[in-house]
Structure formats: C-alpha cells, structure tokens
Amino acid sequence: MTFALSTLIAAIADTTDEGAYARLVRDGGLALLADAAAVADVADAVACPEDDAATRAAMALLSQALDEARMALENDAPEGEALITAVAEVLAARDAARPFTPAARLRLAQVYARAGLVPPPFAILASETMAGSEVAREMPDLGALLEPILKEVGDAPLQVHAALDELFAGIPSELAAMLVSMTIARPGALEPRLGLYWLLDPRPEVRLAAAVALLTRAEVGTLAPDLAALLPALRKLLPDDPARAALDAAIRRRMCDGGPRAEVPAVTIHRAAASLPDGAGAQSLVAAIQRGGRRGVAMAMLKQGHGVKDAFVIPCNSASEQRRVLARVLNEIETFDLPPVALAEALARGLGEGLALDLLPAPGLVDLAEIWGPDALAPAAGDTGAILAAIGGSDALEALPAARRAALVKESIDWMDCFGQIDSWFEDTAALRAAIARARTDKGRETAVWAHLETRRDWWARHFAVSAAVLRSAPEPTPWLSFAAVAQALLDERSLRRIPIMVDIVDQTLEAFEARNSGAPSREAGAPIGTLLAGAGIGEAYLRGYLAALSIAPLAPSPGAWLGPLLGGIEFPGEGVLDRLLEYVMQDANRVDDEAGDPANVARWLAPLGADGLRDWVAGFDALVAATRRCWPTKSLNADDKRVLRDVALVAKGSDGGALRAVLPAWVARRHASRR
Q: SUPFAM superfamilies recorded for this chain (predicted)?
C-alpha cells in the first residue's frame, strides 16, 4: 500500500468531524475509481483479521469506490466494470490461497451491500466456508444483532433495515430469509415495518419470508392498520410469485376480519420540487413534509432504465431545521417548484417503468407511499408516448400546424442558456469512446457520435418527455412544449442533425471526450496543487501557518486529526491527484518541521507577508490548534505560550498582527525545541 493511501485511511479513521469524514471518503472513493491497483490494496485492508478503526475506514473507502464503480457501470463507462472486476479478482485469489475468516467475509459482504452490489462468493458464508466456525454451530442471536442497531438508529426504520441488510448480505439467502422471518415476528412496532421494506427485496427468498411473516401477523391480529393499508399498493409492485400470493392472503385476511381503519394524521406537503434529468437519466424529487408535529424532507431518485433507484425521508426536529435541510438540498441541484400531485405522478411513472423492466423500487418507497397515499402511487405507463399524452403534449402538438411544430423543435437551440442541468447532457460509454478514438479526423469523430446517438433515439426521446413533464407543472412560464416537440420529433424519426439540442449534445460529448483524454479542465488529473488548495479556500500562507503549528504541537497529532480538517474541503478530481496532493502536503510539512527550530527561518517565512498575508498565516496556525486541541494540553503550556496562543486567535479574527509578528520567530523556535 502506498504511503498516500495509508495516510488517507489513517485520516479517515482518526477524524471526528462528520463533514470532513464524509468528504474524505467521497472524494477518496472517486479518485480511486481510476486506480484499480490502489483499490485492491484497500480491499486487502478490509479483509485483514483485525477489526479496528483503520479497517472500518478502509471499509468506508472501498464501499465508496465500489459505489462509484457501480454507477459508472450503470452508465456503461468502462472504468466501472474494470474496477469491480479487478477488486473481485484480487480478493478471489486471496481467498483461494488462504480462505478469509468468517468475520472478514461478513465485512466484505457489508462493503458490497453498502455499494448496492451483490456480494461475490468470497464474501458469503457458504456451507463449506462455515464448516467448523462458530457461525455453523448455532443460529445467530437475533437480539444481539438488533439491539445495537436499535439503540443507534431505532427511530429511523429505514436505516435499521439498511443496517440489517448489510449484516444479512454475507449469509446464504435461505438463512437470511429465516432471520428476516424471525425479525418480523418479534413483538414491537418497528419489526412489521421492516417487513414492508423487505417485500421490495430483490431476493425472492427474502420477499417470501417477509410476506409469510406479515400474513402470520395479520392472522393473529398484530399487524397495525396503518401498515396493513399499504399492502395493496405494495402488491402492485411485486412480480407474480409466491411472495405476492402470500401477500394476497394477508390482504384477504385483513379484509375478512374487518379490522380497525388506520387513524394517522394527514400529511401536509409544504413544498415540492423536481429536477430535470441529468445526462445519465437521473432525476431528483424533493418535498418538505409534516405529519402532526413530525417534519422531514422526502427525497426520491428516478433513473431512466432503473425505475425508482432511491427513496428516503430525512427527519427534521423543527421547522427551522427543515428549512435548512431543504435549502441545502435545493442548492445542490437545479430544481423547479411543482404541485405535490406532480411529484406523485413522476413517482408513478418511475414505478411503471421499473415494473415493465422487472425491477423493484427502492425500499424507501414504503415511506413515500405513506406521504402521498397508497392509491396515488399506482404504477403508471412510463414510456415516451404515455408521458406526452399524460401531460397534454400529444394533443397540444397535434393541434398545431407542421410549421409551428418545427419551430418548437428549433427553439431547443436556446435550452443550453436556460437550464444549468443541460451541461451534463452528453454521451460517454465504452463503445462510444472506442469509436471516437478510432476516428482520425474531427469529422470522423463527429460522425461516430451521430451514429451512436441514432441508437439512443428512444432514450433521449423519453429524457425530453420527462423534462417536459417537469416544466409543464412548474408555476413559471417554461418552454415545456418545445421539449415535448423534440421528444415527438425523435419518435417520428426526424433527422437528428436538424434538432439543435442534439447538435449541442454532440458538441458536449466531444468536449467531454477531449477533456477526459487531455486533462484540459481543472477537474482532471492535471489540476495543479495550488488550484485544488485555492478551491477549498486554502492559500499558501494559510497552509504554512497550519504546518508551523503542526511542527510545534506539544503532542504529535495523528494523521487523521490534522489531515482530515485540512483535506475535508478539497475535491480529488481525477487519477493520481490524491497521491500528488498528499505528497505535496507531507513534503511541505517535513520542510517546515526541519526549519521551525531556527528563529531566522521563521522570520524569513513571515517577512514577505503583508497584513492580510500574516492574518492568513495566523488563521492557518489557529485552525490547526483548534483541530488538534487535545494535543495542546494546558500542563504543557506556560504563561507565555498561553498569551501567544490568545494573540494568535485574536489576529486570526482580524486584530492587528504587528506585535505578534515580532514575537513569533523566537516563540516558534522555542516551542519546537521544547517539543523535541
């Protein structure tokens, strides 16, 4: 394992700041997508016998990298399959040479499940690998599995379901189904709700176990009316299999018993919004909701070719927290306010598409069914023609003369200037990359893209129809009918070259290809270190002050304690960037440490800095002290040290730094010597 990678894992393991942790894991996983060899090293760390903080950090990093790879694979980008295959081959070889322990298998299964991937054989406790182990000799203690999860996230049923799914991912489906059945049978209000989530599990054995367990609850009268009311809606989403038959029996039993009606407070939807689909066909739906005194932000992601990919509700403790969460979500994506019914219609189309593709929706759909009501989320036809008909686009276009319809298509030349999401509308698949690379001229590359787009005509037609549906429901005037006209033109086999937005998509596709291969944009691997630091608000003076404080801290901070806060705001945009950045920072830290013992060197650092530059340097110094407070124990500081640190904090906040500038050289050198 490289020094940079081990340092990153240590930083993830040691950081206590949730934001920095999430940023390190997310950006580290994205950077590793292009480095299969490094990811294999991370996988080795996950499979090691120890279960410590470093192992858990490696788990988070590997899961993020595999999640990025899964999304790339869904979009037919070659790096996705390459990474997933490379990791699997390395781990399969390790397992063949020396079988993994049961604990290591379960950890690997959790990693794959968290990334939305089916665990490979080396991550499963099959009968031959369980032989002789404690797992083989007795059933797991379900209470011991559940209690820690319930203690941590017991008020968030969907999170409990996700945690249990990760635990069950590493055992055979038959055993997992047995544990699911036992879980649902436990007394309590949470357990039957977990059963509803498991009705949407991709494994038939698990779905059947959940349906039978819910039937048993219905028979003995322990299925709450509010949950029973959702069963007919969920039944519409299931394939015709034994699980649906068992669910039918549960529904009939409830009807025969004439059980009490569900009495739950009505849900108020304060605000609803949706995005246009991005270049991969992913669309976000957002709603601020309230039921009684409970508030939350409901979210769903629809993706063309995948149906309802994700659905969940973020609980909020107050109206102000709900506003903050909603603002943060809406600031990340371009959205349009819609009436709540429009979001329900979009969800219904996503459910219909998934049903047509034999894909089950995300388990969190159960929670959304409670919000909009089970009847509102009946699957609806999700093909292009059906969408256009549902929003009135087909009738509106038929009523127009041909010249007006052609003019609406030509209006797509203005879309790029009106909608930020369209920047992501380009093609990037393995086959297309190869075709463009084979072409020897600009004309040949353009021809390759046009040929590829002909095979994607239906995909883009639905893409524009979904966009038209969003804009049709927006309160402000929008060119929704132009989007509908382009969708219809694609269905009618109109020449792609006569549709302006398709010309834009060709141009953006070629630009993306050139950027990937030349590293031209700053987001590619060639981005200079200074640009990365500046993007996170870290100037050279700030970094040197930060590292100066590191060099004189009374107790040496762990890598995670000081790297996490420093790197938490930096994006790692491409292959090799993470390694280069860590190498740069570590080399600078070593140089500062070497020079900090000489007052003349410290004075030389500060001499070129004006008032603002000194304030930046001091701000960096103060940030390190704040991030590593435990490494500055009071007993290690004398009165002079405390006074200087107080002055540092004041100058960092804007006070004059003239007096501090004169004191720093001798003080830094003395503190450096005392640390030695």
A: YgfB-like
DSSP string, 265-325: PPEEEEEEEEEPP-TTSEEEEEEEEEETTEEEEEEEEEETTTEEEEEEEEEESSHHHHHHH
Residue 563's pLDDT is 81
C-alpha distance across the termini of the chain, in Å: 30
Angle ∠(526,527,530) on CA atoms, nearest 5: 140
**DSSP character for 98?**
S
| b/e map 133-162, b = 16+ CB within 10 Å | eebeeeeeeeeebbeebeeeeeebbbebbb
| Domain of residue 216, residue span | 142-257
Note if the pTM is more than 0.85.
no
Residue 101 main-chain phi, psi, to 5 deg = -70, 160
Query: Do 179 and 224 have their domain in common?
Result: yes
Task: Point out the domain boundary residue: 216, 232, 257.
Answer: 257
Instruction: Retrieve residue 5's tokens.
Output: 């990678």
Q: 203 and 115: one domain?
A: no
Residue 23 burial (CB count, 10 A): 20
Predicted confidence at residue 323, as pLDDT, reads 95
Q: What 3-state DSSP class applies to 361?
A: coil
The interaxial angle of helices 430-438 and 500-518, nearest 10 deg, is 80
**What Rg do the C-alpha atoms of the chain give, in angstroms?**
29
pLDDT score of 520 more than 50: no
What one-letter code names the amino acid at 420?
A: G
Using CA atoms, how far apart are residues 670 and 596, in angstroms rounded to an integer?
9
Shared-domain flag, residues 340 and 457: no
**What digits encode the pLDDT tens for the residues 423-449?**
999 999 989 999 999 999 999 999 999
Calculate what percentage of the chain has a pLDDT beyond 90.
Answer: 61
Distance CA 569, CA 434 (A): 35
Q: What is the DSSP letter of 410?
A: H
